[in-house]
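Thread amino acids onto this structure.
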């Protein structure tokens, strides 16, 4: 990778000294379910909370906004939350394969074909002259080619020789990566192989899940919802990983079935469900009132056909 690329990508950030969002108690709209944890990310549909007491199966919990209490919804609208989430995103630091560091927030996964062709003595990238691309992408192109061609370009002259050797043939490279939002608000797609081996390994399972869901035949509305969900969960997992400096934390979606309450039922159960065998997907933490674990399991499975039953436990709070 050229030194000029390293200098361009390592952007200095005026890191805000605000503390991380503090842990608090979250409640559902009925007040019966309570969650102790720290807000990591939020959008117009869900929040993701890092649990104070992590479960064996997951450490992060995605909660639909419609399930939260009015007090929690007001809290999410506060300027305090807006400022703290923005500050936390700026604190993310990702190490590149060459040892350099990038300040930026991971916002979503991306994949794209990069096609190169020499025409009339000029290099075109996806039918655009390379000089018309943003500077950061101009500097990425030689490194992308070097990766797939398993070679090294010591300077621009060496890269220009490679381009000339292709004559007018189109060379296409399929890049898989993440969109990074830099502290100044600019977003750039960064191939996963640009990241350090440890960082790309941590992101790989989440990327494979995202890729699998994109390949499923879904209606446009379902595809958009899946994309929104995957973006939010990536942001949350990346934030948690940066805080803990450890492996990617597992996330589960909370599903409250409070409308199934029967007369005389006072016990609350958590039924953990795994995605169908052979399919990528997020597990579901179903919270349901029931007389016993068998009834709770039956209700959860009926509501989520195809999912596989996991641990079941009685809870007094989350």
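Threaded sequence (318 positions):
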């Amino acid at each position: 990778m050229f030194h000029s690329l390293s200098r361009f990508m390592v952007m200095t950030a005026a890191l805000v000294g605000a503390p991380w969002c503090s842990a608090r108690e979250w409640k559902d709209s009925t007040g019966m379910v309570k969650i102790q944890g720290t807000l990591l990310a939020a959008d117009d549909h869900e929040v993701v909370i890092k649990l104070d007491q992590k479960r064996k199966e997951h450490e992060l919990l995605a909660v639909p906004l419609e399930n939260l209490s009015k007090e929690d919804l007001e809290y999410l609208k506060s300027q305090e939350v807006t400022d703290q989430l923005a500050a936390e995103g700026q604190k993310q630091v990702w190490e590149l394969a060459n040892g350099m560091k990038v300040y930026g927030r991971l916002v979503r996964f991306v994949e794209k074909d990069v096609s190169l062709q020499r025409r009339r003595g000029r290099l075109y990238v996806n039918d655009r002259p390379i000089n018309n691309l943003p500077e950061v992408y101009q500097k990425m192109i030689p490194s992308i080619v070097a990766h797939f061609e398993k070679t090294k370009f010591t300077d621009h002259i060496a890269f220009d020789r490679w381009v000339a050797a292709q004559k007018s043939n189109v060379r296409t490279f399929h890049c898989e990566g993440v969109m990074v939002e830099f502290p100044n608000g600019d977003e750039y797609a960064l191939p996963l192989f640009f990241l350090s081996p440890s960082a790309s390994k941590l992101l790989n399972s989440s990327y494979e899940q995202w890729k699998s869901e994109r390949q499923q035949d879904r209606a446009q509305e379902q595809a958009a919802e899946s994309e929104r969900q995957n973006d939010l969960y990536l942001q949350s997992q990346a934030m948690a990983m940066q805080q803990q400096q450890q492996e990617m934390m597992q996330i589960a979606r909370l599903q409250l079935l409070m409308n199934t309450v029967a007369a005389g039922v006072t016990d609350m159960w958590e039924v953990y469900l795994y995605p169908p065998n052979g399919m990528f997907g997020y597990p579901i933490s179903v919270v349901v009132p029931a007389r016993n674990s068998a009834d709770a399991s039956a209700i959860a499975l009926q509501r989520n056909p195809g999912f596989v039953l996991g641990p079941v436990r009685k809870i007094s709070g989350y």
